[in-house]
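A common beginner's mistake is to predict each chain separately and then try to dock the pieces by hand. The better habit, illustrated here, is to supply every component at once so that their relative placement is modeled jointly.
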Amino acid sequence: MNVPAVATPEARFPQHRVPEISASGVPVSEVIADSADGERSIVAFLCRECAYSAADAAGNARTSLPPTIRTIMVPCTGRVSPLHLLAALAEGADGVYVGGCLEGQCHYREGNFHALDRVAFVRRLLESVGVEPERAAMFTMSAADTPRFVATARGMDATISRLPRLPRS
Amino acid sequence: MPLSARGRQVAGELRGATSGVSAGVLGCEVVRHDELCVGCGRCVSACPTGAMRQDDWFDPAQLFSAPAGTGRGALAAALRRIARHEPSGPFRVPDRIRTFRGILFSADLCAGCGACVRACPTGAVEALPVPVGDVEVAPRGLAPAGAGR
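With all components supplied together, the output reads:
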């Protein structure tokens, strides 16, 4: 295996794809592996068409974001299943959220409505086993709405930092 | 469970029907194994009498009893790692959640036809033969001489 002398952007910021995250959950621990001891981590599943573009624009504008946020791009929030959210929590994340298009503006018609209901389902599931439902959330935003992306990321960070670390058996 | 009243009624209306003792013939006993159910609802659409019904609640305990290696088992494994206590009772599921809806089975409405058993992709619905002693077996073939005149 030849190792490139200079790390490519892909090597430094590996792209994580959704199917790798689902069953074993190993890549999620990889996503959050660089978080320091005691630091919380939040996994954000962002839709390629809207929320990820907003996140990209936030990066281009050099807006500072909470260091706890780890983003995973998904083609549409309709791809995110309850298993993705729960696997992320089980593998070390303290919070998960889904960022999608505005209601009625999904590029695949109604993927974000499916995601909204799945997040609501996961919240009830968490509640039924005694875990705070605020650890899972869903936000919608347009591709140009960078301030809203930053505000939701900071808001989620504030919510999770108020909660205790998630115990894992 | 012997043939229900409704089952006997339907069986009586069918020409040539006997109170069969094998699965797939009218008159089997339907048993549900909730831990294998994936909530696809095919038994509900296959049921001719409305004995199978899909409701808008979900019991997390069903998730926790799902076998490992299935999608539900993986979900339960992830949930078990972060759970603080045993799952509490059923909750209402949001509108678009289809595969996590509880399936209700009413033995009174069941005719014992076995359509749900053939429709089930995971073998969560099982048909058991009715114990022969429980059923009044009608004589096969011609009616006895003198009857029905």
